[in-house]
Design brief:
The chain starts with a helix and ends with a helix. Helices cover 55% and strands 14% of the residues. The chain has helices spanning 2-6, 16-64, 85-90, 95-99, 104-113, 124-137, 173-176, 185-205; strands spanning 70-74, 80-83, 143-146, 152-159, 165-171. It contains 8 helices and 5 strands. Strands 2-1-5-4-3 form a 5-stranded antiparallel sheet.
Length: 206
């Protein structure tokens, strides 16, 4: 480009306009190099941040899979973005179903269809409607959920700043049964263990 600018004249030599073009060309080239360098640095930094963020998310996901509290993270449209292992075991939810990011209402219907809850069939519709309304409004009132296998989970809905919801299902069977016959404690704990083992076996079979 410089040779093109300098050789366009018929007579030899260069005047002020040629020098001005050369300076403009130099400034443009320098500016382009600077912008390219800044963009590359920004891209590299973004890539490094995403890699670190992804690694952190994986560690957090692995940690949440080790606790016995069921955890479900919903987005602003009440679609499940994350479902940990405990919830999948409690409600016999296969990995394929959980990883498909089902809406919350689909999780409720799954619990109904698998007979997960310990309640009369004619009360299921009202129960599902109540739970759905709690999710919609972000109601954080604790609710004890009795499962068909004798397990009792304390459900709490937490509203998140981005409009999503975090649902927690904490096992409180021993607390709820403290006034029961002490001899029944081993029975209820055995039910809880057999349910989880059965859920894992069903998940593996699916």
């Amino acid at each position: 480009s410089a040779l093109l600018f300098l050789n366009h004249r018929a007579a030899p030599g260069n005047d002020i306009s040629d020098l001005a073009r050369m300076l403009l060309l130099a400034a443009t080239a320098g500016g382009t190099a600077l912008i390219t360098g800044l963009l590359r640095k920004k891209w590299v930094d973004t890539f490094a941040w995403e890699k670190k963020h992804h690694a952190t998310a994986e560690r957090l996901s692995a940690a949440l899979d080790q606790v016995d509290i069921g955890i479900v993270l919903l987005d602003a449209d009440t679609r499940a973005e994350f479902i940990n292992r405990a919830f999948r075991d409690y409600f016999a939810l296969s990995d394929e179903q959980a990883d498909s990011k089902p809406p919350f209402i689909a999780l409720m219907y799954h619990g109904r269809d698998t007979g997960a809850w310990q309640m009369p069939e004619d009360e299921l519709s009202a129960f599902i409607a109540k739970r759905t309304e709690m999710i919609r409004t972000g109601d954080s009132t604790p609710l004890n959920i009795h499962l068909a296998d004798g397990e009792v989970l304390r459900f709490i809905c937490t509203a998140l700043p981005d409009g999503g919801r975090m649902l927690s299902y904490t096992p409180v069977t021993d607390l709820i049964r403290h006034s029961d016959d002490p001899g029944s404690g081993d029975y209820y704990r055995a039910l809880r263990g057999s349910h989880r083992n059965l859920a894992r076996q069903l998940g593996a079979a699916e």
